[in-house]
Amino acid sequence: MLVLGLESSCDETAAAILRGHEILANVVWSQLAAHREFGGVVPELAARMHLEALRPLLRAVFDRAGVTPPEIDLLCATRGPGLIGALLVGFSAAKAAAWALDKPFVGVDHVLAHVYANFLNASAPDHPLLCLTVSGGHTDLLYAENPHQYVLLGQTRDDAAGECLDKAARVLGLGYPGGPALEDLARSGSPRFKLPRPDIEGMDFSFSGLKTAVVNLCHRLTAKGGEIPRADLAASLQEAVVDGLVGQLRRAVARFRPRTVMLAGGVAANGLLRERAAAAAREAGAAFRVPPVELCTDNAAMVACAGLHRYLAHGADPPGLGVDPDLRSADVSNFAG
Ligand code: KG4
Ligand code: ZN
User: For 265-316, what is each residue's pLDDT tens digit?
Assistant: First the structure.
């Protein structure tokens, strides 16, 4: 089955073509340079740039895959969560193309799509599985008994882990997005600062206290006229974020005894998080999976894969379906696919 996926929820315009779980072409055009000078994503600019990128991007992905539009069996696009103007571009294009080609269309939950990056170019993971999805906007702990039913065990009560890293990186003058730069800087630092670890019962997360602690610490240090030991602070923050994430992951692993433990989302590109999560899985005798770094961050191959599973379980979405900027992973308790 040939599947076309489109992703335009934030600042990446992406298209991919899959044959089943196999990636035939996966192209991501980042708008990062355009947004960088504003210190974050400008929604209106993002939507306009998606619109300009879409046609050449589609041409590129069909060329690379060596297939023609009429050969596509299923079209998928991110439905939410995301920026409404940005979402509308990819979603409307995929729906219109599905109508023109007389092929089925499926709208995809972006946060769930991150989970499916683990299914690409790979055999299906053993179930039950636990997946910790850590992105710029979400921190979700998911449990699946089978490939068609995901239950949300926990989520962040305030800021996402990625948001905390991005904000702290901004205060440290590292620009946007902060995660990769922070990881680089942390390599030359020592985690000597004691930063708060939230004490939460159950499976939820919290990162706003940590974010505030780092910002306050920076202000205190500069108010005294001192230099900010940036590398040490980056290392301390990375350690605290990974501790917060893996602590809850370990708790869930002990309780649910999954056969597979997975990471997903942009923050799953982080080396320390990958290492610590792999150790947690290994100690519990579970298999461990994490997508290659280029499939952790936003892409359309994961959207196509999630759409394919949703289609196989649920069939096509109706043509009247609209985008949903607040689409929440909490919906996944009823999700099949
Ligand atoms: O999943 P994603 O690409 O976009 C969203 O759906 O949000 O995640 C973006 C997040 C940003 O917060 C970025 O700083 C973070 O992923 N990130 C990283 C790394 N690479 C990207 N965080 C830590 N270490 C990295 N290497
Ligand atoms: Zn994402």
Answer: 999 999 999 999 999 999 999 999 999 999 999 999 999 999 999 999 889 9
Ligand 1 within 6 A of CB of 82: no
**Secondary structure, 3-state, 163-224:** HHHHHHHHHCCCCCCHHHHHHHHHCCCCCCCCCCCCCCCCCCECCHHHHHHHHHHHHHHHHC
Q: pLDDT tens digits for 18-63?
A: 999 999 999 999 998 898 888 788 999 999 999 999 999 999 999 9
Whether 156 lines ligand 1, by a CB cut-off of 6 Å, is no
Asked if residues 205 and 161 have their Cβ atoms less than 8 Å apart, the reply is yes
Q: Of 220, 138, 205, which is closest to residue 171 (Cα–Cα)? A: 220
Q: From CA 12, how far away is CA 110, in angstroms rounded?
A: 13
Nearest CA to ligand 1 atom 16: 266
Encode 220-257: b = buried (16+ Cβ within 10 Å), e = exposed.
Answer: eeeeeeeebebbbbbbbbbbbbbbbbbbbbbbbbeebe
Largest CA distance in the chain: 67
- Measured from the CB, is residue 81 less than 6 Å from ligand 1? no
